[in-house]
Design goal:
By secondary structure, the chain is mainly alpha-helical. The protein has one domain. The chain is built from 5 helices and no strands. Helix 2 packs across helix 4 and helix 4 runs antiparallel to helix 5. The longest helix has 27 residues.
Length: about 110
């Protein structure tokens, strides 16, 4: 990025807050196996529809899955989809055979 662009962005509070939130999402997605209290699909039917507590900070759903874990793992999937969409549209715009071959192998 250009230094002027970074300087202009650093002056705006909303840009700083947005950048910090984006970094937080990247960090949580990258370290999801270590940060999430449970796997994204682990069920505990005894704990279903519980409110927030120390064990489940955001509560549980109707199958007893922790919402905290599901949000953290969902961020990881969302970033993977965004990355693939970026690759696709970049390849679509600069279509070359080698780039499209790589894209189809990733898909």
């Amino acid at each position: 990025m250009n230094k002027k662009v970074l300087l202009r962005l650093s002056r705006h509070q909303s840009a700083r807050v947005g950048g910090a939130l984006l970094l937080l999402v990247f960090f949580m997605a990258a370290f999801a196996p270590f940060l999430a209290p449970e796997g994204y699909n682990e069920q505990d039917l005894i704990m279903r529809l519980e409110g927030p507590s120390l064990e489940a900070p955001l509560g549980t759903d109707h199958l007893g899955r922790q919402l905290t874990s599901r949000i953290i793992w969902g961020g990881r999937i969302t970033l993977q989809i965004a990355f693939m969409a970026t690759l696709y549209w970049t390849g679509h715009r600069h279509s070359s055979r080698s780039y499209s071959w790589i894209l189809w192998r990733l898909h």
